[in-house]
Structure formats: structure tokens, C-alpha cells
Design a protein that fits this description.
Elements lengths: L24 H27 L2 H13 L7 H34 L3 H15 L10 H18 L2 H24 L1
Helix pairs in contact: 1-3, 1-5, 2-3, 3-4, 4-5
Length: 180
């Protein structure tokens, strides 16, 4: 076997002995996802403040009137506000947890995290409708950061890293089977 030092920036072509080196872009991807998580928190704070406001209640009255609901009372509006705050909070906590977990597993080169992150980025597009809310800029920033991180996962050194990581893992399994 060749004893020359290897350039770790190039593909290891399935060599089981040396794990691929994490390229610097993986740190960028991780921090983009952490930025998306922070933007999610900021957007959620604005969402909760808005859902607790009189402006939200007035909008709810207009929407209910457009649906021919006539017997609107303060208790109903309060229940709508509480339900909205609860939904915003649960979704924000779940999204932040997902951003952090996906970011950590992406740094480890886990291919499934790339797919999960892509799914999360696609779901974040549904939040684009919330851009006109008070936390709209934070929502837009969250979408841009999340989508940007996932695009980087499929380009250049990151794509090579994921391919090499998978090849290395398969080669280790094959070597382990042959050793038995």
C-alpha cells in the first residue's frame, strides 16, 4: 500500500482506513442553520406579541365577519389568541430543536440530515405567507438562511464530503464483514 501522505481535500475513493476530513464549509452550513434558529425565535416573539394584541383581535373580528360569524364575544377572541400563541410557541420550539439537531448531524456528515434539512427548508417556504406579519423580516431571514445552508450541502466540498462519508462507512462495513 502506498505510504505517501494523502491530500484530505480530495475524495478518498472508498478507502476504509481514513475517514474524510470535514471541510470548512460544514461550519458555515452549521452556523447558517443556527442563524435560522435564532431568526425563528425572533419571528416567534413577534408572532406571540401580535397574537396578544388588540390589532390581532380586530383582524379576527373582520375575518369572522367575512365568514358570516355574528355572535363573536370577548371570550371567543381570547380563546383564539391563546390558541394562536400556543401554536406559535410549539412550532417555534420544534423548529429550533430541528435546526440544531440537523445542524449537528450535518457536521457529522449524516446523509439523512441533508434530506431532513431539505424537508425543513421546503416547509419553511410555507412561512413565506407570514412575511407580512410584524416578524416578517425575521421570517424572511429564517427562510433565506435555512435554504442557503441546504443549497451549500449539495454543492462543492460539502457534496464531496457527504459522498466520501457514505463511501467510507460502506467500506468499513464491508471490511468488518470480511474480517469475520
Amino acid at each position: 500500500m502506498n505510504k505517501m501522505p494523502r491530500d484530505n481535500r480530495i475524495s478518498n475513493n472508498g478507502m476504509a482506513g481514513q475517514a474524510p476530513v470535514v471541510p470548512p464549509v460544514m461550519n458555515t452550513i452549521f452556523w447558517l442553520l443556527m442563524g435560522a434558529a435564532v431568526a425563528q425565535i425572533i419571528a416567534a416573539v413577534f408572532g406571540v406579541l401580535h397574537a396578544s394584541s388588540d390589532a390581532y383581535r380586530q383582524d379576527a373580528i373582520k375575518q369572522l365577519a367575512a365568514q358570516n360569524v355574528t355572535d363573536v364575544n370577548a371570550e371567543m377572541l381570547e380563546m383564539m389568541s391563546v390558541a394562536t400563541v400556543g401554536t406559535i410557541t410549539v412550532v417555534a420550539v420544534a423548529a429550533v430543536i430541528l435546526y440544531v439537531l440537523i445542524g449537528l448531524f450535518l457536521k457529522k456528515g449524516m446523509g439523512w440530515a441533508r434530506l431532513a434539512g431539505t424537508g425543513l427548508a421546503l416547509i419553511s417556504f410555507s412561512r413565506y405567507m407570514g412575511v407580512n406579519t410584524p416578524g416578517g423580516m425575521a421570517t424572511l431571514l429564517q427562510i433565506v438562511l435555512g435554504v442557503g445552508a441546504m443549497v451549500l450541502c449539495f454543492m462543492g466540498p460539502a457534496a464531496v464530503f457527504f459522498k466520501d462519508k457514505r463511501t467510507h462507512k460502506l467500506a468499513r462495513r464491508k471490511n468488518a464483514r470480511l474480517a469475520r
